[in-house]
Structures are given as structure tokens and as C-alpha cells.
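User: Can you help me understand a structure? I only have the sequence.
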Amino acid sequence: MVKRERDRHGRAPQASPGSPASARAKTERRIFLPAVVLVALALAGTVDEQTIGSVPDEQQMAYTAVALAELGEIGIGRGQVFTVPRAGGDAVSPYGMGLSLVEVPVALAAQAWERSFGPRSSQTLYAALQILLVLLASAAAGQLAGILGASRRGEVLAMAGSALASPLWAYTGTGFSEPLQAACLAGALLFAARAVRSTAGKDLGLAAASGFLAGWALLTKSTNIVLVPLVLLPLLLDEVSGRTSEGKRKLGAAASAGLLLPSVLWLVFEVVRFGRPFSSYGEQGFSHPPLDGAWRLLVGANEGLFLYFPLSLLGLALIPALARKPETRGTAWGIGATFLCLLGLHAAWWAWDGTHGWGPRFLVPAVPLLAAAACTAAASRPAKARSFLLAAGVLVNLLGILQPEATASWYVASIGKAPIPEGEAKRFPRPYVTRGADGGSHTASLFLAASDHSFSPFRTHLFLLRLRLANLAPEERLRLLQSPPWRDSHPRLLPRLEYPVYTSFGVVTRNLTEPFSWPWLGRATLSDAGERPLTFLGLRGTGLADQVGRKLDTGKTETAISLSRRLHEVDPSHLSAALLSESLRLSGRGDEARTVLRELAPDHAGSPFVLTEAALLARDAGDEPGARAILSAAQAQVGSPILGRALASPLSGWPLTLREMTGEARSDQPPGSPR
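Assistant: Let's start by predicting it. Here is the structure, written out as C-alpha cells:
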């Protein structure tokens, strides 16, 4: 009877004020904001601050932010993987400027933060920024689901599913640009859809905001240029009552106005840094078979989106139905076309998996869009499927949270070079392919691991997490690490984890050998100051150190002295001491340089950086026996070919600077990384 009455009148009777149904509806309307707060607490309570900044991509974007904050410049030091050298002796990052610009406030605040809380404590700020970006992207997913017809509960599920049931969760503990891209794309589509549905007075502002976010996605990554018109499709295709063609043209003009500033910034930065747009990646290109890349990115055992984000299956299944509705046609087309473009572009990219990052990194920006589509259906069967897929996503991605991906990547990278299967060498850029002793082609192991199921991240992460959870001494854990999950398939490709404790990869290795401890936001800030250098990387410190090296490379020693003093005051470490000493030495103040090294604590005095700098000072003073003895002690730790050649040469044949002695980079570059 109730059903027949509902069918007859088109809707159920309205609940009277104060009735249980009315109270329930009011409660549902209010649950979104508390749900956002709960998700924010979940993200903050699981973020790992230890290894942010261990990957070259993260470093170069953050170092550019430091250059902007400290000097108002965009140059970074040479020696990083993938940098684009400049004629003046420095380099620029090949990556988009969007995240670097967003990180500038963090870089500005980091110095005061570390003065208050100690060296490396600003890792908390970098993690907080990524949490904010993930939260913004996920909140946009929830609001977008509502526009597509989801109930308030569906909006909450879309928001939570995007943040906690997808690989986006693990990106809170990184310095990658994917969370920013996700926030920009989801925000642009959301504001475009709202603009069409908004009343006059708000619609033009929303359309302009949509264009601005679409432009910032372009500024963050140049290939997003193909996505800009797609996330603005609601302005053109969503059919909303009362919205005329003339009104849509005005919205399009407002979106174009919002798009203008970030687009101009993108073009200016492209021309200033590289001479022309789309040229920063050099010999890298689209050389991978697209069909192979597509299935690996969707269902492959190592990087398949459906494994890391099961909810995407439902999202993709529901897009066609949403596209058939006139009122959601443009929004649905925007979601589907954005996802397909991301898939098509990166399936053909030579490093289709992104090399680093939990899950299919290049598809992560589409996560909020697919989550929004997945949570629109209210029927019982899709709702049950959605709950199952959401729970599965949480369990899968919890593994990427509890075991940092940066540590697992380093574990695989420590293998060094690995042979490329016959016929595949041509897919890799020439600078990253070498000839092995057997005459075959070799490249960094990380480039090959994604295509080999023996290196499944699920197996590797679970193996590493189990070791950290076991009640073992660090030495025993290190011994067991020599028998990786892929040993049966590749008995000759074994990790090498003897990197010096003084280096940043010594910190990452310690993360492998120390017992598990629960990650949470603020841990770097509140941890013991004495343990922090061994437990946490310091993205702000290494960024400032990079600027010191850059100024030394370009002959600006006085600026280098000023920067290195500032670094040494906040973080009086072996690295800062070596850089300050080097800056003084190259400016002709050798006595002051020796004084800096003499004041070091014994544990820092044994760092390979300090020993190499001390050897250069002894060389300058004409003390050949002392210089050779000191450099031999440094070589015993790092096994560097450069130091080896120097020891076999007369003092006059030694490199002139510390940067040259360390290969134009710090000696924490992992074995096997391309140079």
C-alpha cells in the first residue's frame, strides 16, 4: 500500500517538523563536515613523516620551493636525477611548478619551525600540506557525488573512499604532486558543475574558480593540458533548468578568465626554464606499448588500479548511466574522459608505472572523480557492492601506509643495475641504459620491477612489514633482508644495504631494520632531538644544502657562506659543517674552514662528507700523506669510483671541489640510480 501511494503521488509524504524522519534527514544533512573531520584525523593519525623527500622527484620540487623562498630564484643544484642543466652551472627541475609554488609557504615557515622544535622537525609541515591536499581532493569527491545524485551518505562514502580506500591515502607521506593534481582536477570539475546550477551572482565566480584550478593542474604537470577542457565540460553539457546558451557562454568566458593566470605562469616558466614548452624531459618519451601499459595499469599484479582502488570498478560501471542523464551529462563525460586520457597518456610512457609511488601513481589524480561516480547509486545491490569494495580498498592501502613505499622502493633500488630482457632496451631512454660485463643491456632495477610479478609491491611490503613487526634484533632483521621475496625468481638480484649511516639512505635503511612504530602527524616535531637525524630525513635542510651547492657551483661563495651558516645554526650536522667548511675554503678562508671541522662532535667527524672536505683542506695545505689517509677513510665508507681515482692520482689530479669529489651530488644517491 505504501509503495502504491508513493508511486501514485510521485514521492512519499513529507515528514512533519519534529518527526523522527525529519530529525533523521536533518542529521544526514549535517554529517558531511564531521565526516571530513574524522577523515582528517585518520589521515593525520597514519601519516609517516620519516621518509618524505627521499625520491628525486620530491626533492627537486621541494628544492625549487626553497630556492623561491630563500632567494626568489628557481635554480637548483646539479647532480640530481633528471635535472635540466643550465649554462650558468646550476640546473632546474623538469617538473611542473604548481607544487613548488604551493610548497613555498612551507619552506618559509620551516626555518622558524626548526628553530623552535629542532632540526628535521619541519617534516611535519610537509606531511601536513599533503594531508590538506588529499583532504581537499576527497571533500571535492564527496560534493561532486552529491551533484551526481548521491545521498548525503553517498557523499560521505565518496569522500572517505577517495581518502582511505584508494592509493591516495599513501601519498600523504610523500612529496609527490599527485595529491595536488587530484585536488585541482576534482575541484575544477566540482566548481564547473556548481556554476551551471548556481544562481546569478555566484555562478561566474564558481566558473572562474573552476578555470583557475584547471590551469593550476596544467601548471603542476604539463601533460594535464589535455585535461583542461575535459574538467570544464559541465559548463557546456550539463542541462540545467533555467540555464540558457547565453548564460553558458558567460560561464565559459569566466572560466577562461580564471584559466588565464595559471596558464600564463605555466608558459612563462616553461620558456624561462627550458626554452619552449614540453621540452623538459629530453630523450624520455612515449615508447611503451600502449595496450601492455593499459592492462598493467588497470589489472596488472603490480600496479593495477582495480587492485589498489577496487571502488573504481563501480565508478567506471556507473559513468555511462550518469552520462545518459541530461543534467549530469557533462560532469559524467568529464570524469570518464579525464580518466581515459590519463590512462592513454601514461600507458604509453616509457616509465608507465611512475617508478616510485604506491599503486599506479599516474592514475591517482583520477581517484576522487571515480570515487564520486561510484557512490551515486542507491539501489541495494550496488550499495552492497560499494561497501565491499570500499572495505577492500581500505585493507589494501593500509599496507602502503604501515610500510612506507619510499623504503620499499629503496630496498628494490639497492639491487643496482639489472639486465633488460632481450628486445626491450629500445623502450628506455638511452642515458639510462648501460652495457654490462656480459655485453647485455642493463638499467636501474626499479625501472624493471614494475613489469615483473616477482617484485609485486604487495609481497614486498608485506615481507618488510612482517620483519619490522617481528621481535628481532636489527642485525637479525638485516640478515633476513638479504633473502627478499623475489630471491627464488632472481637469485642474483639481491639488495645491498650497507649504505653509510651518515647519509639519507642510511636513514631509509634504518627504517627497514628498526622495529615497527605507528606513524602519526607531529612525530618528527615531538621526537627526541638526538634520535631525529637517524630516524627522519630533513627535506628543508637538504633543500638549503642544495642551494649552498648550487651557489658554490656558480662561483657565488659569499652567498654560499651565508646560506651554509644559516643551515649550520639550525642543524649543526656533518653535512652542514662540510658545506660551511667548503664555502669558506673556496673563498680563501682555509683556517676558518678547519676550525669548523675541529668543532664537530666525534660521531659527525667520521662522516664521509667531513672526511672528504678535510682531505681537500689537507691537499690545499700541501699535506699529501694526511690528505691521502683522510680520503682513504672516506673511501672505505662510500666505495666511490671518484674517490678511488683520486687516491690513484697525484694531488694535482684531484677534483678541486667537494661537489666534484662527490659526483656533483651528495653521496646518498642509491646504487643503480641513473646519472
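Now, to help you interpret it: The beta strands are 84-85, 91-92, 417-419, 434-435, 441-444. Residues 245-274 form the longest helix (30 residues). Let me know which part you'd like to focus on.
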